[in-house]
Amino acid sequence: MKLVKSNISKKYYTPSQLAYFTAILCLGFDVLFVTESKFFLILASVFAFLGMLRELLSLFRKLWDTIIGKSIIVITYASLTNLAFAFAALKINHVTGIEPFPFTYTLGFTTFILMPFWLTLSSIIMLSLAIMVANIWMLLRLCLKLVGIRLKMHWEDENRAVLTMFLRIILIPLVMVMAVETSSMYFPSLGSETTGSLQFGNGLFSVDGEAKTKLIDEPAKKELKADDTSDSEFFSEISNNEQVQVESMIASFIWYLESYSHSVCKKRDDQKSVIIDDYSVLLISQDEALPVGYKFEVSECVPLYKDESSKIIEREVTN
Length: 319
Description:
Elements: H1 15-32, H2 39-64, H3 67-96, H4 104-113, H5 115-146, H6 161-182, H7 188-194, E1 198-199, E2 204-205, H8 218-257, E3 272-275, E4 280-286, E5 294-300, H9 304-318
Antiparallel strand pairs: 1-2, 3-4, 4-5
Helix pairs in contact: 1-2, 1-6, 2-3, 2-6, 3-4, 3-8, 4-8, 5-6, 6-7, 7-8
């Protein structure tokens, strides 16, 4: 009697798949247990983000191993860096009221503190491309399967690959909205519009925050819209305060590290100066009444030696 051993390959779930399944469970809890807290929603976005981050890093390594992939990555990072410096220059111009050319060190500092904005923006772009590619790939695979050509759904998924792809398509918008809310201090208008809109348990699944369920009667809808308006105003105020904090950090950096107490131009003792050109100077003084805590004034550069020479001439005339 021969014992026939069947080679059955065991298929395991990847860590990203487990993260997606956990995220869907958290969304289910958010639907079942309708509460004012967004704990389950935030937890779902965290698990979904971790799963997608792991896959993006794996894809990054695969692209980096090819010459074309390296070229694409380098060009993308160079373009993103150029945009980051341009955005930082605009931010400095908004804070100081002048061109950012004199602020060499502040430009680098502003680019650094605005890094979460660019990480969020690049993540949204990558996730948007991912959801489009995922839909196109699923349709292409289905069409080719009808003619007998089988393609692999995902480079890593061995078990429940189609289901996992559907979960990615569902979870990508959630991660995108949460990314915008997390970085709302850098674009408060977007943060105030999206905040409070993604509430599965309350029947809300729209970016504009409007109720789109017929299960709620008219009085409940009015009360819900009133709550959404108050929440939107509350989070908008928080976003504006956070934006002021970012601008205050930039102004403080200029005051302490890129402006000077002693200058060739005439100024008050409580002021610091930054030379703009041969004829102009930026005078900075502390002012608690302003949101950023500092006052920036452009003034004509009156050289100290002219002031001293005029005093000498006056003394000679007097004598």
